[in-house]
Amino acid sequence: VQLQASGGGLVQAGGSLRLSCGVSGPITSRYAMGWYRQAPGKDREFVAATSRSDGTSYYADSVQGRFSVSKDNAKNTVYMQMNRLKPEDTAIYYCVVNPYGLATLRLQRGGDVFGQGTQVTVSS
Question: How would residue 109 be classed by pLDDT, with cut points 50, 70 and 90?
Answer without folding.
Answer: confident
